[in-house]
Amino acid sequence: MPYIEAADKRVLGAFGAELVDMKGSSCCPEPYAVLALGREAWLGLAARNLSIAEEMKQSIVTPCPGCYHTLRAANRSLRKDPLQQERANKLLSKVGRQLKGEVEVEHTLTVLCNKIGLEKIESSVRHKLSGLKVAVHYGCHLLKPSAVTGVEDTERPTFLDRLVEATGAESVQYVRKMLCCGGPISSVDENASYAMAREKLLKIKQAGADCLLVACPACMIQYDTNQPAIEKAFGEVYGVPVIYHTELLSLAMGIPLAEIGFRHQVRVDAILRRVNL
Fold first, then answer.
1. What is the CATH number of the domain that holds 59?
2. Is residue 276's pLDDT more than 90?
3. Mean pLDDT score of the chain, rounded to an integer?
4. Within this chain, do residues 137 and 56 fall inside the same structural domain, yes or no?
5. Residue 17 DSSP one-character state
6. Hey, which residues does 242 pair with through a beta bridge?
7. pTM for this one?
8. Domain range spanning residue 233?
9. What is the pLDDT of residues 158-189, one digit of tens each?
10. In angstroms, rounded to a whole number, what is the distance separating the alpha carbons of residues 25 and 48?
11. For the chain, first and last CA: distance in Å?
């Protein structure tokens, strides 16, 4: 999903954030399949990634809430439990690595809201997105459990809504706002997965939103890439454009579209026309 990477790099770079690739890093590991193989495999792979960032003397920033959740959860466990850290380092020693527990893990959204700040973001807006009605989708891993994410009110979060409003757009409230996208169960029950996404897409249309905003590549796949398949499965048409949060910011900040891409399954032309781009 190169358009997400491009938007993240361009937007964060505009605020002076230097993004450096983690050479040699692997899967986070994926918070479902790998953990199902065993906690030691999950913890060992996460510790290896954390040790790479630690060696670079850099914090980890990821656009993926799944990676964010895994790496923060593993980091927290390793810091709190010396025995787990000892076990992880025993595994890491086999590949010539060591972990001290000195690295932080952030999501692009936590960097924007907590490190850069909404006031600075609002002052960077060059093209107010007035009149654009946006339905936000928080997803699961950015919020829960609060012991890992630090989000106090996981049922009524507001930070993504406030980010939308900083661009001049309107954050539209809608029924079933906190419903999971259904993506995580697609490999077990595709029909149930699509039914969950359908419920959300219908409520967003009923609320009169122009688009759906996400902060997760997996949610983007479910709502954008899979939307035609969901329409076919239920014999309905939704036509809900889906955009990533840094794509919305790039529009507001006047970053040229050619530098991002906006290569989505559901066309975003209506959004661009709505904001006169």
1. 1.20.1050.140
2. no
3. 93
4. no
5. P
6. 212
7. 0.94
8. 117-274
9. 999 999 999 999 999 999 999 999 998 998 99
10. 8
11. 23
